[in-house]
Amino acid sequence: MKLSTFIFFIGLLGISCGKQPDPDINENSSGNPATAPVDYLGAVNKGHKKATTDTALMQVNGALNLYKASNSRPPAFLNELISEGLLAELPALPAGTKWTYNPQTGVASVIPAQ
């Protein structure tokens, strides 16, 4: 009994001391506990930008779908959504991004401003 218990604990020790996978450090984390607050704020800011962009895209693409359903064609410009009363204005985007629109497909997207 003692020998099997001893072997069991040696096995557990060997498993627990084996090669551990590296921690998952993404672009929002430096892995340094001293910079954790800064990493957290950066991740929050990145999430806010993504949420703002996604919400704006849903609003504009929803208005585009309504325009296409009413007029049987996509608008030539995004400003037609405003003149038709489907949008009061184009939703604001985060800094460093801008609207782009393809009138052939009728799809709006957001790209980095250059």
Q: Can you describe this structure?
A:
This protein is mainly alpha-helical and 114 residues long. It has a domain at 41-114. It has three helices and two strands. The mean pLDDT is 84.
What topology does this entry show?
Layout: H1 2-16, H2 36-71, H3 79-83, E1 97-102, E2 107-112
Antiparallel strand pairs: 1-2
Q: What assembly state would you assign to the polypeptide chains in this entry?
A: single chain
What is the H-and-E element order?
HHHEE
The coarse overall form would be elongated
Q: What spatial order of strands do you see in the largest sheet?
A: 1-2
Low-confidence runs (pLDDT<50, min 5 residues)? none
Q: Tell me, rounded to a whole number, the average pLDDT.
A: 84
- State the total count of DSSP E strands: 2
Number of helices: 3
The proportion of residues forming helix, as a percent range, comes to: 40-55%
User: What integer value in Å does the Rg equal?
Assistant: 26 Å
Portion in beta strands: 5-15%
Q: Tags for this entry?
A:
2 strands; 114 residues; mainly alpha; 49% helix
Summarize the structure.
This protein is 49% helix and 11% strand.
